[in-house]
Design goal:
With about 600 residues, the protein is of the alpha/beta class. Helix content is about 65%, strand content about 10%. The strands form two sheets. A six-stranded mixed sheet has the order 6-7-8-3-9-10, with helices on both faces.
Length: about 600
């Protein structure tokens, strides 16, 4: 019996959710407690006001004059009511202020924790969730959780103490009528127990649709040129309107499942009030209670019932808050797979080689992407990965900085399994330039120093020169302090690439990964960027994913990937001599180039 009660206590959602939130509330516990304690007199003063009407009714109305039973002047009673109402209002303001202050602080701390989690969370999580979903889960849920939690604690604490003291007034004035009032109260509150089950699935689906709405805005902003160039306005509009329609239908379903609560409580309470008036009239005529008792009773009952009739909305908000808390902690408690071991070591600088040993990998269990990869990359070598799209080229290089972990086998740097070294030291050793490099809003300088925050002006100028970016920067009125817009929208594709290359120069990592860094550029931009890349590759170990085979003919080793397997490896000349997969790729590109040149001549 005791174990069962203990289990219920530990698994009570109210207790569980507040225990989860306690570490965030703890630094501000005094203000939090004070905001709740203030609600005690706020609620209790309702009873004082109701009780004051009894002597006033009996003495003034029924006796037509005289003094109160406490021999106080009659004018004291209305003054008394005004005084306590003003006091109640002042305390309510103080409680609201403290609750808002605490709620804001707790929300801020919770968002800090969620953002820290987002920075560390596995790449696979990011891959599976749209940007809108991320915003809803990591930002919106924190607001819902904290705002609903603290505001509703204040509301419910006020309601509890108001209800307790008002029930005492009911019992004091007429226990017979109080029995009716309490039974009606319990009956009206019973439907609240069904709310959570009715809205849980609706809320979960609303989160998904709400995320889709945010994603639509993000995609429309980021893809504005694509939308315009393909005349996708109507298509995007229909798609967005469909999403809004889904959100509307879900909100209506939520109303259908919850809006009946308040009207039902109104009906039950109206029946209770009618019954009280009927039975109260009998008690007055039979001299069981006085008219003052009845007026005080009715006032207390109405003060008790009025907020109760609307408590359905508050309770619904509490359930939404609890669900948000559960979603927040579902994220916070999600285990991170890509992390440091307890005994992880700092990776020494590359001295010998990078080794792929019997590596298998899959994004989705049971659907292998890489199979039995064995590869040696010596220090100072330039190794290019080529092959058909979807063969696994980008996946191979993504495993080295541990964006993902291998399913089996190992990747070693100078004999150290990369899972045995710290992520910080591993990623410090790797510089990456992607096909679509992400630039942050701010200035050119802001984006460059991400490679090295304490870089000197000389180091920055050298990086600009090596990235063939110095002339462009010097042509700008504000130079390095020129704003580049969100995601670098004020720069051309080639300029973005060179900023990313300059950033990699400043990082000065011994291993460089180039993931199709020139494939999206025109010939003129490619030539400039290729020169910058050639500068970056000097005296480093380089892994290149190449789309254009002409750019990697001088690589020390070319690795051909097909359907997750290494099918060939060797130099350009060696692979052509084999007349295998590489020669087929090369000849296909060479023939395409000849056709294009012929068409240009014509």
């Amino acid at each position: 019996m005791f174990r069962k009660l203990s289990y219920k206590f530990k698994n009570n959602r109210f207790i569980l959710n507040y225990s989860r939130m306690w570490p965030f509330i703890k630094p501000f516990w005094f203000r939090s407690l004070l905001s709740i304690l203030i609600t005690i007199p706020i609620g209790s003063l309702d009873a004082v006001i109701a009780l004051a009407l009894k002597p006033f009714m009996d003495t003034v109305i029924m006796d037509q004059g005289g003094t109160t039973p406490f021999n106080m002047p009659l004018w004291i009673i209305p003054v008394f009511v005004i005084f306590f109402t003003v006091l109640q209002a002042a305390l309510d303001y103080g409680s609201a202020y403290l609750s808002a202050w605490t709620g804001g602080k707790v929300t801020m701390e919770l968002k800090k924790k969620l953002y820290t989690k987002l920075l560390a969370i596995d790449q696979s999580y990011i891959d599976k969730n749209a940007s809108g979903q991320i915003m809803m889960r990591f930002n919106g849920d924190a607001d819902t959780a904290c705002t609903g939690l603290l505001n509703n604690v204040r509301v419910f604490t006020t309601r509890i103490f108001s209800s307790v003291t008002l029930i005492c007034v009911l019992l004091y004035t007429s226990w017979q009528l109080a029995v009716i009032a309490i039974v009606v109260l319990g009956t009206s509150l019973y439907p609240l127990t069904m709310i959570r089950k009715k809205i849980k699935d609706i809320v979960a689906r609303s989160i998904v649709v709400g995320g889709a709405v945010l994603t639509s805005f993000n995609e429309t902003h980021a893809g504005s040129k694509t939308i315009a160039s393909y005349n996708l306005n109507e298509h995007q509009k229909r798609k967005f309107f469909d999403t809004l329609n889904q959100a509307f239908k879900l909100s209506i379903k939520n109303i259908q499942r919850t809006a009946w609560l308040s009207p039902m409580m109104h009906i039950i309470i109206a029946i209770g009030i009618a019954g009280t008036i009927w039975y109260g009239s009998y008690l007055i005529t039979s001299k069981t209670i006085t008219a003052g008792d009845f007026v005080a009773f009715m006032t207390a009952m109405l003060m008790l019932y009025t907020p109760i009739k609307n408590i359905g909305k508050n309770f619904n908000a509490v359930q939404l808050s609890f669900m948000a808390i559960e979603r927040v902690f579902e994220i916070l408690e999600t285990p991170i797979k890509i992390k440091d071991k307890k005994d992880a070591i700092t990776l020494p600088s590359l001295k010998n080689k990078i080794l792929f040993k019997d590596v298998d990998f899959s994004y989705v269990p049971g659907t292998p992407v890489l199979k039995d990869i064995n590869l040696t990359i010596k220090k100072g070598q330039t190794v290019a990965f080529v092959g058909n799209s979807g063969g696994g080229k980008s996946t191979i290089v993504s495993l080295i900085p541990r964006f993902y972990d291998v399913d089996s086998g190992s990747i070693q740097i100078d004999g150290h399994d990369i899972r045995d070294v710290t992520l910080e030291s591993l990623r410090d050793s790797i510089g990456m330039v992607f096909q679509d490099n992400f630039l942050f809003s701010g200035t050119i300088r802001d984006n460059l120093i991400l490679g090295k925050f304490d870089a000197t002006e000389d180091e920055i100028r050298q990086a600009l020169k090596m990235a063939c970016l110095d002339d462009f920067v010097d042509s700008l009125e504000k130079g390095l302090d020129s704003d580049i817009g969100e995601r670098g929208t004020l720069l051309s594709g080639g300029q973005k690439q060179r900023v990313a290359i300059a950033r990699a120069f400043l990082k000065n990592a011994p291993i460089v990964i180039l993931d199709e860094a020139t494939s999206a550029l025109d010939n003129k931009s490619e030539a400039i960027v290729q020169q910058a890349i050639d500068n970056l590759m000097k005296d480093r170990t380089v892994l290149v994913i190449a789309h254009r085979l002409s750019t990697i003919q001088n690589a020390d080793k070319i690795v051909v990937i097909n359907e997750g397997h290494i099918v060939e490896e060797g130099t350009h000349q060696e692979l052509l001599a084999k007349k295998g997969a590489y020669e087929a790729l090369y000849m296909a590109q060479f023939h395409k180039k000849e056709v294009n040149e012929k068409e240009d001549d014509e």
